[in-house]
Amino acid sequence: MKTFLFVLFATVLESAGDAVLRIALQSSAGARLGLFAVGAVLLTAYGTSLNLAPVAFASVVGLYVALLFIMFQVMNFAFFRVAPTLPVYLGGVLIFAGGMIVYFGTRNLPASH
Question: Does residue 10 contact residue 49 with C-beta atoms inside 8 Å?
Fold first, then answer.
């Protein structure tokens, strides 16, 4: 459960940081700098947290990819009110299934730290 929450936290930071940067690119010059700073902090926190994980990244990469896909869809709706289309749902099922195959097939690898 600890690993799942760790990876979930990293995907929230990454997807939110990406959304904030997309908003910054479309914002006025006055707001752009502040939004870029917020996005940079979120993405730096994501990279730091993921690299400090107490497990080998190879053992959670499948879980990460599956959760990242889901979190990007959640953030896309939350920030931009864009709902996934049928092809996104279908592709998402394949991404999630593949991620779970990788996760369950590699989760006992030793930590690389």
Answer: yes
